[in-house]
Amino acid sequence: MSLPGSSHGSSFAADLARLAAKPVPRYTSYPTAPHFHAGLRAATYSEWLAALPAASDLSLYMHVPYCDSLCWFCGCHTRITRRYEPVGLYLGGLIREIRLVGERVPAGASVSHIHWGGGSPTMLSAEDILRLAEATREAFRLRSDCDFAVEIDPRGLDDTRIEALAQAGLTRVSLGVQDFDPEVQRAINREQSFEETKRVADAFRAKGVRSLNIDAIYGLPYQTEARLMATLEQVVALAPDRIALFGYAHVPWMKKHQEMIPPEALPGVEARFLQAENAAAFLVANGYRRIGIDHFARPGDGLAIAARDGSLRRNFQGYTVDPAEALIGFGASAIGSLPQGYVQNEPTTGRYLATISEGKLPAARGIAMTAEDRMRRGVIEALMCQMRLAEADFAATDAQEEAKTAIRATIRDMVDETRRGWVKRDGDTLLVTEAGRPFLRLIASRFDAYLGQSAGRHSVAV
């Protein structure tokens, strides 16, 4: 497969590959995390929680920052332990935070989505899985149709914990796969067989879990297009409802353990781009709908339906059908999104637990959004989710007119740049073409007023 637009010649293909290597945010929030600051602390967070509308729809994210081995590709906030004692101690703090927040949220609020991430939430014992679920039910009112998703590491997951997750009300599992090729697995320190992964998928389905997501990664060390396709054939054989195909983010300046991956083993920019596009074509040919930049779903899955009807959203878990007005993050380093802005907890488990033990909310940093921030967030989300931006998406907001004028000027500039064919105009609507889809992050970044204003560094765009 050639690069989109490569009919213009090899120099154009090289230009596309160069642009794909430009570092820009993933836009799971706006403003993005590098622009959070320490001036926003617990008192403000407490006020924001109390100010939520009485009938708020809430989404809860629980972060469990522990793994029993270190995957060298990992960019998550996690730590390695072979002992259960620190995990159990941490769980006690997490439950106390749940109670502290529950006391501040209006009584009429209800929870429609719960997500456990990490790290590896499946580090929790069966008993503690049930404790965490029960503490959540005691502190919050859960809707009868609450969607409850957990990130699952299939390696060594026993039937006892599978049963506990089912009892806790799990509705969707997200299995981490990354790549099934043995050489790639050794290079990222994550050895995991197809057979073990299938055993866990089958076990959850036998317990009535109705939705299965699988995470895979392109751009890994020693990963070729053939190896990636072989992995995706095995992934498709598991018949997941959703597939997330992320580009490996090589950020050793942030995650020192990634220095274990030799840079020369990583695919080059053009090879990485072709991996992503050919993988997408393969998944579409196998019955999946392409969602945004890195998600795929069966046509009848809620994610595909949301993409069709315009209700698709984007948050810290990626693309989602979650409509909640507030996403509350629990645990060390967890980020929450409220109508007023973003809040991030203490990133280190020691400071997190110490703050919780004093009966204080562990907020460490964040940012309050301005009217212009909210407008630009809506603009970026419309592009990332719907691949379109209409005048109505920002014209009626309470941002100042000069900010709206700046958005219109950016749209005009992008339409005038017709050489690449990434966007076109239809009346008062900017449309991203299929050729532009791989560059959605780059297109969205044109509307980011903060980009370049901090020392934050990002992964490549594709």
Distance N to C terminus: 16 Å
Give start-end ranges of low-pLDDT stretches: 1-10
Beta-strand content: 15-25%
Average pLDDT: 92
**Rg result:** 22 Å
How large is the count of helical segments? Answer: 15
Structural class: alpha/beta
**Global outline:** globular
Helix share of residues?
25-40%
Give me the side-by-side strand order of the main sheet: 9-10-8-7-6-5-4-1-13
Major sheet attributes: 9 strands, mixed
Number of strands: 19
Model description:
- Helices cover 37% and strands 21% of the residues.
- By secondary structure, it is an alpha/beta fold.
- The longest helix has 20 residues, at 85-104.
- The two termini are 16 Å apart.
- Residues 1-10 have low confidence and may be disordered.
Structural features:
alpha/beta, 462 residues, disordered N terminus, 3-stranded antiparallel β-sheet, 9-stranded mixed β-sheet
Topology, pairings included?
Blueprint lengths: L9 H11 L21 H9 L6 E8 L1 E2 L11 E2 L4 H20 L5 E9 L7 H14 L1 E12 L6 H9 L4 E7 L3 H7 L5 H13 L4 E8 L6 H13 L4 E6 L21 H17 L3 E3 L3 E3 L4 H8 L3 E3 L2 E3 L5 E5 L4 E4 L2 E5 L3 H9 L5 E6 L2 H16 L1 E3 L1 H4 L5 H16 L6 E4 L2 E4 L7 H6 L17
Parallel strand pairs: 1-4, 1-13, 2-3, 4-5, 5-6, 6-7, 7-8
Antiparallel strand pairs: 8-10, 9-10, 11-12, 14-15, 15-16, 17-19, 18-19
Helix pairs in contact: 3-4, 3-11, 4-5, 8-9
Q: Nutshell version of this structure?
A:
With 462 residues, the protein is an alpha/beta fold.
